[in-house]
Amino acid sequence: MGNIVFRVCVFSLVLFSGVALAEPKVAIALHGGAGTISRSVMSPAQEAEYLEILDQAVELGRSRLLEGVAGVDVVVEVIQLMEESPLFNAGRGAVLTWDGQHELDASIMDGETLQAGAVAGVTTVKSPIAAARAVMRQSEHVMLAGSGAESFAASVGLEVVSNDYFTTERRLQALDRYKSSRQAGLPVAPTSKFGTVGVVVLDVNGNLAAGTSTGGMTGKRWGRIGDAPIIGAGTYADNQSCAVSATGHGEFFIRYQVASDICARVKYQGKALETAAFEVIHDVLEPVAGEGGVVAVAPNGDVAMIFNSEGMYRASIDGNGKKTIAIYGDGAAAGASSDG
Amino acid sequence: MGNIVFRVCVFSLVLFSGVALAEPKVAIALHGGAGTISRSVMSPAQEAEYLEILDQAVELGRSRLLEGVAGVDVVVEVIQLMEESPLFNAGRGAVLTWDGQHELDASIMDGETLQAGAVAGVTTVKSPIAAARAVMRQSEHVMLAGSGAESFAASVGLEVVSNDYFTTERRLQALDRYKSSRQAGLPVAPTSKFGTVGVVVLDVNGNLAAGTSTGGMTGKRWGRIGDAPIIGAGTYADNQSCAVSATGHGEFFIRYQVASDICARVKYQGKALETAAFEVIHDVLEPVAGEGGVVAVAPNGDVAMIFNSEGMYRASIDGNGKKTIAIYGDGAAAGASSDG
Q1: Whether A222 and B269 lie within 8 Å, measured CB to CB
Q2: For residues B305 and B295, is the Cβ–Cβ distance under 8 A?
Q3: Residue ranges making up the domain that contains A222
Q4: What is the CATH number of the domain that holds B77?
């Protein structure tokens, strides 16, 4: 019913008001990670918790975009909401490395200027996505790593926390299980669950932006850097083509240049965003068992949320106002999909 | 004269021997960095030294390729020759960070399998390119950083050296000059000279490979990571399109995805390698003052060596046996260009 009323309203506006036609489009799509996410192991209460924060995040983003906030800043604000939630593997709630520490990665890109910033392996910066934005805006560099990145973040006044700020009971247990399996020589599936968060937007000025923030993989070692802080792999934005944030088994996303390859197919082959994203996730990654997904937005306000895993926490409001919130990949998505 | 004899021989072989026609093509192109390289400041002795090692490196590569060694291994062997030379900003002879240390980066990619490996910010691994290959072949990961990468390299038996193994008098003086200028508030041009090394090859099995190794930028701070260890920025290889190694102002090479964009233009737009490389270096990077260059090789044995800086140390032997060794960009290249 609300749907019909909305459509009639839009139709009336189109007919009777040139101003309404000229109203700038905004769009947003976000993910909270992809992987093995089964209805069978998720309680109704857990499901409701995820749907609620996904809804909160996508509505926050849309309202800030409509206020005219620049795309890059909306990306940071929405990712910060997700970094602060213990539900996702980013910021508080991040997974633990083999050594029981948190090493966080993030990156951001501005589709108008192709400016970009990234941090890798930071352990005490409260908001890794804010640090990535600071690298982009306040340094000569694109990517800073480790203690150097932390010194930089502190030098520009970003909030510093102790490493255990990020720790949750759930991730401690996950590390214990992972180490027990590894040490017992049992098969482990480090790729079975990813909780990276990412946001892509189209702002009122027609600019695209993308950002990604993660705690990496449970039990990671040796200073491993995944795709999240790699421009072109986990994050890419170019007003000429699209903005993409990825989540999944990072090594594949680096090797196959997932974010920039989707944009290259849009730019050089003239493909629709949905087609380009589908091809890379299903035709390129699936045959090599590269598990994961992407959210993406095009300059015309189209959004795509594509994944080859069992599920992906996701939400979007496209340029026509159509809202989608979903978790599973079985078509009968939990959550709402509505116009307006 | 040698040229004519060679051509007659090739012609005879084509006429009289089907075997000769079936002989697999090999090709190699390499760089020792791009930047402000003026005849006026280079002594004849220095010039001869550079030309000699460029010649030695390209001939080593070609002979190993003709012996049937796999492309990835040829890339490592040739880069190691350059890492061990104090003339280049990679391995011994690497530049110094603001803190007077060496932090080395390298990456490698196999165009057949799209496997890749990279290390960033390593300080005690004698051969960063060998460490990158070990990450590719002996770990589950693509990119390892800092002390974690060093632990991994040691765990697989790679040679470890003390950080001052990499130090040369010339780079100590360069850091002193850089810090004096910065501290006096004078303008500095950190981008005026780059000595990253990189090699791309086509091997006898028709496989492409690319690798890059660097000491980064003089006076770098905050754990800065440039394009050299970033797959898609400094290094990319895909048998379906091309193999590229880049050198220059790394931040631009990351933002504009230089290596993978060249390959995307070949793959999606059907452009010739030379055209694609020219467009990215001159039409994309030059307008935004993104200084540097690339070497690239195509599956058909074509090579391209393109730069927008004053010079680039470079050498190649293409699929037809044409050899080029040069330093400057003024057309009248120092060194030889010959068929055969």
Answers
A1: no
A2: yes
A3: 24-339
A4: 3.60.20.30
